[in-house]
Amino acid sequence: MMATLDLTGLSVRPSQVWGGVRLVPLVRDEPIETLRLHAHVYGDSIGIVKVDRRTAYMSYIPHGFVATWSTDGTPAAAYGTEITEGSPSACLRLHFHRRMARRADKKRLRFLPMHLAVEGYLALHFGGPQIVWDEWSQRAIRNGLSPRVEEAYSGAEVEGLGDALRIFEIHPGQCGVLVYVADALAAAFVVPHPDDYRALHATLIQDLYGELVYQYAMFASPVPQFQVRLNESHVQTLADLRAEATRQQLAWPQFHSSAMAAGLLDAKYDMRRVYRMGDYTLTRFLPGFQLKQENHIGEVITDQRGRTAYLKTFRLSENQVRRGHLLTHLAVHDWHLPTTASALGVTEAQLGMRLESAGFGALLREDVLARYRRTR
Question: What is the DSSP code (8-state) at residue 332?
């Protein structure tokens, strides 16, 4: 199902700037009481998740989230952060997880935030060619895209992010934040209740961020503050001053939604349901893989009306978008290279070179790849 993200009930507050990092607080009109989140902290560990009988997902997984809900309208309880026993060694431990999302008891679900979305991206057309065309190698036919590897950076490696999260105060009623680096949207994070946000705010420094975000943080200059400027010619009375202030208050959210966050909010996503929790649904989503545009993956919990209770996103780098773009077009055309090349407006040899550049060269037979190089 294709759909957009619905942030109804969430309003933005003035941004907070630290160097190249801009944090835009999100405040709920009314907290969600029937769904609550808390963290289950695993510490510095490499997590291994069994996706199916033949496939495993491995990544740095510092924490999981536990969602608790009620079905009778009464407030759900948040149990607070749980910390597992960690090793005093400087080495990373291995932590084995049964699933990406696993029911803990009747009304509690434990899931791995962000990794739920990343695994969905890595699984994109993971099985490889469905038809044994001559161009594909035996490895592509037998193993598909296995192993599939992508790189990301922890928030601690993103210049200025840790200081920004530590320095700025949390707004009353704040239930989320949009993180910008060099005024490029890096991530969105939304939770149901202000108490959940206060408990989970610090987990942003452990989240994963893409290569583009890391590079922007390294090389970008400080971003400007958006200063409020009142038009003095329109202010003659206290009522005029109040009206001008109201106009300025409305101008920032309108600019933010239409310009800064438009790449996230205006896009349509391929939504795949993961788990139903009473009146709520946990879903992960993939973008349309449009080249030279913002592309975000993520997971979202929505209510029966489609409004967002929980959201976490990851911005793909240009190379990751390119890989998703190629795989999507190959799958649409049954992995037939001449047909796919024609649809993309390139020659078959150019498509072969794009596949090699994207890291998929090993899927092609070596003699076919050599022919493409000669043709180029």
Answer: H
Residue 17 near residue 222 (C-beta atoms within 8 A) = yes
Per the listing, tokens 């047909």 go with: 339
Q: If DSSP codes are grouped into helix, strand and coil, which group holds residue 153?
A: strand
Angle of helix 366-375 relative to helix 348-357, nearest 10 degrees, comes to: 120
The residues, any chain, with a CB within 8 Å of residue 300's CB and separated by 6 or more, are 5, 282, 283, 284, 285, 308, 310, 311, 312
User: Cis peptide before 75, with omega less than 30 degrees from 0?
Assistant: no
Give the DSSP letter of residue 55: -
**What is the C-alpha to C-alpha distance for residues 208 and 63, in angstroms, rounded to an integer?**
12
Contacts of 110 (CB under 8 A, 6+ apart): 40, 64, 65, 66, 67, 101, 102, 103, 104
Condensed to tens digits (0 to 9), the pLDDT of residues 37-61 reads 999 888 777 899 988 888 999 998 9
Please indicate, yes or no, whether the overall pTM of this predicted structure exceeds 0.85.
yes
User: Which helix or strand (DSSP H or E) is residue 328 part of?
Assistant: helix 318-332
Q: Which two tokens stand for residue 193?
A: 């209740």
- How far apart CA 357 and CA 352 sit, in angstroms, is 9
